[in-house]
Amino acid sequence: MLQLFLLTLSLLPWMPVFHCKVTMDSKYSVLEGGSLTIPCHYGPQHVSNVKYWCQGKTREFCTSLARTDDARRIGPAVEKVSIFDDPVQLVSTVTMNNLKEADSGWYMCGVEIGNLWKADDVAYTYIEVIHGLSAVHSQVSGEEGSSVTAECVYSERLRDSVKMWCRSGDPRSCRSTGSEGIYEDSSVVIRDDRIGAFTVTYKKLEKGDTAWYWCSAGQQKTPVNILVTPLPTTTSTSTSTPPMTNKPPTHLAPPHIESKESKETWHGLT
């Protein structure tokens, strides 16, 4: 039994520990000009190791972009690519800013092992940088009479394009932000932040506003469904007090009174 235990201990360094490997999602998509933050998880045995982020699909040909031991790090809000290690949560976080279509490709998150006998622990992901337009939510809903906002985000090359909001199938319904980046009338407000998003706010929803619409920027457009729900109906239930009924008083049986005659009869018998 002791020999089996010693044999097991000797084999432990060679056994793969699958739950301690580096892991992250296999694919990400982001609009051009936007930012992306990616968590990269590792095992507790890698807490003190250097973490790094590089572009490429093989360890041998991977261009280094960020390392946790780089003393020149500024911060995720300033740098094009930055990496932050949180040893308490066992995760290193990579942030990439101002992404271009040319940045699309394979990337690798790695833990540097630093010896000749074992390769670095790594995980791969594919990042797709898209030029275009998309809706934050493809459907937004609100009660009749309430306010609701739809938001559409666009890529960098569409920042200077005119933004439009149109009811599907009705070209005459289109409303444009114009050169000022804003449109407003009695029922709707459209605002373009000129950075990467524009919003459409209905001030007071009506039943007839339920329809499909188009967010449009340049030649790009994406559908959004507006759903107006009816106001909840409240049924008033009367809680009247039931009429009082004149019930006859409850008569209790009179207490038994022993008569004098019966008492004398009883004494006579004794």
TrEMBL record:
<feature type="domain" description="Ig-like">
    <location>
        <begin position="13"/>
        <end position="125"/>
    </location>
</feature>
<dbReference type="Pfam" id="PF07686">
    <property type="entry name" value="V-set"/>
</dbReference>
<feature type="compositionally biased region" description="Low complexity">
    <location>
        <begin position="232"/>
        <end position="250"/>
    </location>
</feature>
<dbReference type="InterPro" id="IPR036179">
    <property type="entry name" value="Ig-like_dom_sf"/>
</dbReference>
<dbReference type="InterPro" id="IPR013106">
    <property type="entry name" value="Ig_V-set"/>
</dbReference>
<keyword id="KW-0732">Signal</keyword>
<feature type="region of interest" description="Disordered">
    <location>
        <begin position="232"/>
        <end position="270"/>
    </location>
</feature>
<protein>
    <submittedName>
        <fullName>Polymeric immunoglobulin receptor</fullName>
    </submittedName>
</protein>
<dbReference type="InterPro" id="IPR050671">
    <property type="entry name" value="CD300_family_receptors"/>
</dbReference>
<dbReference type="InterPro" id="IPR013783">
    <property type="entry name" value="Ig-like_fold"/>
</dbReference>
<dbReference type="GO" id="GO:0004888">
    <property type="term" value="F:transmembrane signaling receptor activity"/>
</dbReference>
<dbReference type="InterPro" id="IPR003599">
    <property type="entry name" value="Ig_sub"/>
</dbReference>
<keyword id="KW-0812">Transmembrane</keyword>
<dbReference type="InterPro" id="IPR007110">
    <property type="entry name" value="Ig-like_dom"/>
</dbReference>
<dbReference type="GO" id="GO:0005886">
    <property type="term" value="C:plasma membrane"/>
</dbReference>
<feature type="signal peptide">
    <location>
        <begin position="1"/>
        <end position="19"/>
    </location>
</feature>
<feature type="compositionally biased region" description="Basic and acidic residues">
    <location>
        <begin position="257"/>
        <end position="270"/>
    </location>
</feature>
<feature type="domain" description="Ig-like">
    <location>
        <begin position="144"/>
        <end position="225"/>
    </location>
</feature>
<keyword id="KW-0472">Membrane</keyword>
